[in-house]
Structures are given as C-alpha cells and as structure tokens.
Amino acid sequence: QVQLVESGGGLVQAGGSLRLSCVASGRDFSSAGMGWFRQAPGKEREFAAAITDRGVTTSADSVKGRFTISRDNAKNTVYLQMNNLSPEDTAVYFCAAKTGYSSIAYYLRSRSNYDYWGQGTQVTVSS
Fold first, then answer.
1. Are 49 and 59 in contact (CB under 8 A)?
2. How far apart are CA 60 and CA 125, in angstroms?
3. pLDDT 10s per residue in the chain (127 long)?
4. SS3 115
5. Most exposed residue of 4, 17, 22, 41, measured as fewest CB within 10 angstroms of its CB?
C-alpha cells in the first residue's frame, strides 16, 4: 500500500509560479513511476507530467516548457514546478504512483496504469 499526500496548491496570478509536492509512504518509493494529473471542473482528469523510476520524464504538450517534474528519492517526494501559469491551468492536481513497468515513460502517460492516487491539491490561476 502506498499513501500519497500532495501540497503546494493555492491561488496565483497569471504568469506566476507554484511548486507542488507529493510525499509518498508505505513502499519503496524509488522503484515507483510517479505522475501528476489534473482535473478542471466539468472535465476529465488529464495527464500533466510523469517521471520514471530512473528519472526519465515525459509531459503533456500543454505544459511542455512550463512545467517540470522531478523527484527526490531520499525524501520520498515528487515535485511539479509550474511556471508561467495561465487561467487554463486551474484545476485540482493529483499525484499518482505506479508500481511495476515503472521504467517505461509511455506507460506513465495513462491514468489507468496507476495504482495509487493522492487526494489532490487545488491550483487556481487568476487572470
């Protein structure tokens, strides 16, 4: 069992930055693939960025060049640095963990491949 707790969300003006954190507990974090997804009101949950157990990253086109995912295995934490935010980035952001096949970045782009989810953190970007 893996528990995931996100933090770092909040209200920010367009053009601003936020850094989300997700702390994992319960299993060997370093062997898990980790992802960030987001869900805006009335929309489906969508992929934002992910990182394999070996540190290979992949991100959605909508956030490429603005969002950066990273991990600190010593702290059991994955981060999402979000820069140049726009109102379209407003959503609840979820952290997710995948055990097994965690070295394949392509698999980490699909929400159905994840085993564990956090409760989410709200990000609101004002114009």
1. yes
2. 19
3. 889 999 999 999 999 999 999 999 977 888 899 999 999 999 999 999 999 999 999 999 999 999 999 999 999 999 999 999 999 999 999 999 998 878 899 999 999 999 999 999 999 999 9
4. coil
5. 41
